[in-house]
Specification:
The complex is a heterodimer. Chain A is of the alpha+beta class. Chain A has three domains: 91 residues, Aldehyde Oxidoreductase, domain 3, CATH 3.90.1170; 327 residues, Aldehyde oxidase/xanthine dehydrogenase, molybdopterin binding domain (Aldehyde Oxidoreductase, domain 4, 2-Layer Sandwich); 148 residues, Aldehyde oxidase/xanthine dehydrogenase, molybdopterin binding domain (Aldehyde Oxidoreductase, domain 4). In chain A, strands 3-5-1-12-9-10-11-21 form an eight-stranded mixed beta sheet, with helices on both faces. A five-stranded mixed beta sheet of chain A has the order 7-15-14-13-8. In chain A, helix 10 packs parallel to helix 16 and helix 15 crosses helix 16. Helices cover 25% and strands 26% of the residues of chain A. Chain A is built from 17 helices and 30 strands. By secondary structure, chain B is an alpha+beta fold. Chain B has three domains: 50 residues, 2-Layer Sandwich (Uridine Diphospho-n-acetylenolpyruvylglucosamine Reductase, domain 2); 111 residues, Uridine Diphospho-n-acetylenolpyruvylglucosamine Reductase, domain 3, CATH 3.30.465.10; 98 residues, Enolase-like, domain 1 (2-Layer Sandwich), CATH 3.30.390.50. In chain B, 32% of the residues lie in helices and 24% in strands. Chain B is built from eleven helices and 13 strands. The radius of gyration of chain B is 19 Å and the shape is globular.
């Protein structure tokens, strides 16, 4: 039969295209109260006064809260963020007060009646400013903040985390280098722009149980943090995640859940809903991290990389959230997918007065790859070498070590095969820069990718399988459906194991932390691999139970039985067997006697042999699996005004084993679209007071379908030995190499190095003019 | 969500509309006419627009029609941009309005709203300026017809309580040759760096521009300058003395980039008309 490698239609497809799938804000009930937030109009300011007296008098208002009422510190790794600003605000858009009212309208009206007075403080608008000796401290009391061991804040500075990589001997590496290039890079913070804005609903039941519905990628993290932040018993917390309209990392960790719980608490536990407006989703809630970076890379005459010295200064914005771990992940993968014997990297997570950053598709890797892939092209130019050949020559492979000195084993993908295939698809040999008859320039650029999940060493997944009367299967796993199609992928994995049609496998769409088996989070592109392993293990458990019952009926050893295609039968005598449906809920003999009882398959998986990293050298084994790939972009540029059209975007990825080709293509092409949008036209614009100028979709423009290039996607399948059917993660990776590839194509087109995003036509025009 | 209360009226006739406006005004309220409502909704929800009352003009029949009269073709101000784009009589109108917003929003934005709203681009105006259209304005004293170039000074000049009910273009312009150039920051679906619409008839080349300055314009002095038979270089070097405002600097583009692209594209237009 075969359920792996087919483009099964996603389980929720029909409801989605018909507009019937319910998202969190579609659920309403008569007892619901509504929250609204008053946000800061200063990027850095002392709160002189907050007057809530008018708001309290307004009709329908149940409660008005300010920072003083909520003495808590939030932060997934570093507890630095009050739910509502206390004493001072640290970014434009920070919540300073909250209202609960009978209707959204009344809540919004009351918010407008709240009067806040600020005293302006010096605004820090970039990591460089934040790191200056004279810089004001954004968090004066950093030494009081609790944090996990893996994070190393530096109190008395604006550095929330510093991760160090020291591999080989950097001095010797540069001494052996014949060619050294050095360059600086940057891009501003930006937003995910998920179609569904974040929302959360909380209520506290009579017995103290807390029920939270949330647009979360990480319901179990929310449950755990509710315990950590508020001291509530985790068993009394239920977090329910419905299908989500796009996560991209922005719905991982704790988002609105903590605050909406506090709002519910303020009104006696009544059910309160808090939904971000688009503008709040862009700047009040966290977005994509910014970066300033320096790279110095040395190579031999032949183009062999000898040394890499890298300084990443991430713009975390006002709070640390996931940014401290992003800066760490960027250090762990700092060289990109290249063999570099001598590496020095300091990766800093730096506070500024920008909106704060959280996880974003690629998690440190899209950021580091922009730096590395641009530097590779600059190096190739200096070596007078083809940039694709330079990548091929230095492509990391089995037997090499990563920046954390971890050995790449036989599960390592084949980057060289990916580079070769992408070069074919984009027509690299036909020329990477051509001037057309009408004076336009057609140029191509390359960019490679690698990514490993950045996650705790004990990250796990679980699965439960139950059966229906017709022998069909229900699969229950704690991974959230965020548009990636994971539930369908899981159904395919289970169908393959049982030799039945995917239609015979039903999935439970919602995740409920009180019912679903534990799962770390729907993040890090680990869902298919880890959830898939748990499902395989649950299938095996169920199969052994089926065999156990059937062996009694068929009077044969369990190990002689096989379960396939809806039957359990003796391997060598296929005609002797039973239907799974007659066994899975207990076998009933003709006289009415029943045995066995229902089959409940239990499956689990926990990451294997992972460690932290050494604080001084970065040595360790933090990476579960590396996904490798090669990407390229072709564009056509009008040299008169520097406007350009992206014609093709290509990606070859070593996915181990393709589970669902249509959905894999959707993930990879979607990733490329997201990265093209980010690199070409996204990014917050700030004035000198740190206000975000383009804080709505009228002024913050993402790639439209009409701007989309032709997407060329292909795969290499070097099995991931420990992945389900050999599969490895591919959800985020499509973004990673694209910003570098785009910048490389533009730099080649105009003969001017473009190292700062976004690459708007005007920025190209100015840089070319300044370079003349 | 719009977080303040307001009164809502939906009159069925021009007279009802102007009467209710006058009455509200008398009561000391600040009424606002609207048709598609896209600007009202987006701006009011952000607190950038306040009003005590809205007068919805959608039910006024005279504003909803497209018809051929003896003296020209009449466009009701309530026609959506997509409806106007579907009328094939004037290809330039079709081409200009199809660049405003995206398809979905063009199902709501009306000609009258785009031209009389708060946003400064008012691109739908450009062909009407070039065609020297008649604009029909309703007020408490009835309907008046004006040449749009007379009624327009940085914006369509309307007195309190007045609103536009439609535009009329002479049929003789149907076959007039045109050129249309619109430059954007990156995405096509965005406000323009500038938008130049141009026609050429027996009187010469005419151009109308949006996005370059704080308001759209068509200037007779500029037309005269362009038609002066000088070399394109010279025309462009001296063009700014005939442009009525300063070149805009905003988060779409800097003034220098806008200027450079404007010169480049004006040259392109002059070249193309030269060839034609």
């Amino acid at each position: 039969m075969g359920s792996i490698g087919i483009s099964a239609v996603r389980k929720e497809a029909k409801d989605k295209v018909a507009g019937r799938l319910k998202y969190l804000n579609d659920y309403n009930s008569p007892d619901l109260l509504y929250g609204a937030l008053k946000t800061s109009t200063f990027a850095h300011g002392r709160i002189k006064s907050i007057d809530i007296s008018e708001a309290l008098k307004m009709p329908g208002v149940r409660a008005v809260l300010t920072g003083k009422d909520l003495p808590y510190r939030f932060g997934i790794y570093l507890g630095d963020k009050p739910p509502l600003a206390i004493e001072k605000v640290r970014y434009y858009g920070e919540p300073v007060a909250a209202v609960v009212a009978d209707s959204q309208r009344e809540a919004d009206e009351a918010v407008e009646a709240i009067k806040v007075e600020y005293e302006a403080l010096e605004v820090i608008n970039s990591p460089t400013e934040a790191l200056a000796d004279s810089a004001v401290l954004i968090h004066e009391n950093m030494d009081e903040y609790p944090h996990i061991d893996a994070i190393r804040p530096e109190p008395g500075s604006n550095i929330a985390n510093r991760t160090k990589i020291r591999k080989g001997n950097i001095k010797e590496g540069f001494e052996k280098s014949h060619v050294i290039v050095e360059e600086t890079f940057s891009f501003p913070p930006s937003d995910h722009v998920a179609m569904e804005t974040r929302a959360a609903v909380a209520e506290i039941l009579g017995d103290g149980r807390i029920v939270i519905h949330s647009t979360t990628q990480a319901p179990f993290v929310v449950k755990n943090l509710m315990g950590a932040y508020f001291g509530v018993d985790p068993g009394k917390v239920t977090v329910i995640a419905h299908a989500i309209g796009g996560g991209y990392g922005g719905k991982a960790g704790m988002q609105l859940e903590g605050l909406v719980y506090l709002l519910s608490k303020a009104v006696g536990g009544k059910k309160v809903k808090l939904v971000n407006t688009r503008e709040q989703d862009m700047i009040t809630s966290p977005g994509h991290i910014g970066l300033e970076a320096k790279a110095r890379i040395g190579a031999s005459k032949e183009g062999e990389l000898m040394a890499a010295e890298l300084l990443f200064m991430f713009d975390s914005g006002a709070y640390a959230d996931y940014a401290v771990n992003i800066s760490r992940a960027a250090a762990i993968g700092c060289t990109g997918p290249y063999r570099v014997p001598n590496v020095w990297c300091d990766s800093l997570c730096v506070y500024t007065n920008h909106p704060f950053a959280t996880a974003y598709r690629g998690f440190g890797h899209i950021e580091l790859a922009f730096v590395i892939e641009r530097t590779m092209d600059i190096l190739a130019d200096k070596l007078n070498m083809d940039s694709m050949e330079l990548r091929m020559k230095n492509a990391i492979c089995k037997g090499d070590t990563t920046p954390t000195q971890s050995l790449l084993d036989s599960n390592t993908g084949d980057l060289k095969a990916c580079i070769k295939r992408t070069a074919e698809m984009i027509g690299w040999q036909e020329g990477s820069r051509v001037v057309t008859e009408d004076g336009k320039i057609r140029a191509k650029g390359f960019g490679c990718l690698w990514k490993a999940p950045a996650m705790p060493t004990n990250t796990d997944a679980g699965a439960i399988i139950t059966f229906n009367e017709d022998g069909s299967i229900n699969v229950h796993c704690g991974v959230v459906e965020i548009g990636q199609g994971i539930k369908t992928g899981f159904a395919q994995i289970a169908a393959e194991k049982f030799g039945i049609d995917v239609e015979q496998v039903h999935v439970i769409m919602d995740v409920n932390t009180s019912i679903s088996p534990h799962d770390w989070a729907t993040a890090a592109s680990r869902g298919l691999m880890m959830g898939g392993r748990a499902i395989l293990s649950a299938c095996e458990d169920a199969i052994s139970q089926i065999k156990h019952t059937a062996s009694q009926v068929l009077r044969c050893p369990e190990e002689d039985l096989h379960v396939w295609g809806g039957r359990v039968f003796i391997k060598e005598e296929e005609h002797i067997g039973l239907l799974v449906k007659d066994v899975a809920l207990g076998y009933v003999y003709p006289d009415g006697n029943a045995i066995g009882g229902q089959v409940i398959g239990r499956g689990k998986y926990i990451s294997r042999r992972l460690t932290g990293i050494d604080p001084d050298t970065g040595k360790g084994n933090p990476a579960l699996e590396w996904t490798l790939g090669a990407q390229a972009v072709e564009l056509e540029l009008d040299p008169t005004d520097c406007s350009y059209r992206i014609i093709k975007a290509a990606c070859t990825m070593d996915v181990g084993k393709l589970i669902n080709p249509a959905m894999a293509r959707g993930q990879i092409a979607g990733g490329m679209a997201m990265a093209l949008s980010f690199a070409r036209q996204e990014g917050f614009e700030f004035n000198d007071r740190g206000h975000v100028i383009n804080r709505d979709l009228r002024s913050y423009k993402t790639l439209r379908i009409g701007d989309a290039p032709e997407y060329l996607v292909d795969y290499v399948e070097t099995p991931q030995g420990d992945g389900p059917y050999g599969a490895r993660g591919l959800g985020e990776q499509g973004v990673i190499g694209i910003p570098g590839a785009l910048a490389n194509a533009l730099s080649r087109a105009l003969g001017v190095p473009f190292n700062h995003l976004p690459l708007t036509p005007e920025s190209l025009w100015k840089k070319r003019r300044d370079n003349r | 969500m719009i977080s303040f209360d307001f009164e809502y009226y939906r009159p069925d006739s021009i007279k009802e509309a102007t009467d209710v406006y006058a009455q509200l005004h008398e009561e000391g309220k600040s009424p606002l006419y609207f048709s598609g409502g896209t600007e009202v909704i987006t701006m009011a929800r952000k607190g950038a627009l306040k009003f005590d009352a809205l007068i919805d003009l959608k039910n006024i029949e005279e504003m909803n029609v497209y018809r051929k009269d003896e003296d020209g073709i009449y466009f009701g101000a309530n026609m959506t941009l997509n409806e106007a784009a579907e009328m094939k009589d004037f290809p330039l109108i079709r081409e200009v309005v199809r660049t405003i917003g995206d398809h979905t929003i063009r199902n709501r934005i009306t000609l009258g709203g785009n031209i009389c709203g708060r946003l400064p681009y008012r691109e739908a105006l450009l062909p009407f300026l070039l065609y020297d259209a008649q604009v029909y304005i309703a007020g408490i004293n009835g309907i008046k017809a004006l040449s749009i170039n007379e009624a327009f000074n940085k914006r369509l000049v309307l007195s309190k309580g007045e609103f536009v009910i439609g535009f009329k273009v002479k049929e003789s312009f149907m076959d007039t040759k045109y050129l249309n150039i619109r430059k954007v920051k990156t995405s096509e679906i965005d406000y323009p760096l500038f938008h130049i619409a141009s026609i050429k008839d027996e009187e010469g080349i005419k151009i109308a521009v949006s996005g370059l300055c704080a308001y759209p314009f068509r200037s007779y002095e500029l037309d005269k300058h362009i038609n002066c038979n000088s070399e394109p270089d010279e025309i462009i070097n001296n063009v700014y003395q005939f442009i009525p405002g300063t070149i805009k600097e905003d988060n779409i583009a800097s003034a220098e980039y806008r200027k450079a692209l404007f010169e480049l594209n004006l040259e392109k237009i002059l070249e193309k008309w030269g060839e034609a």
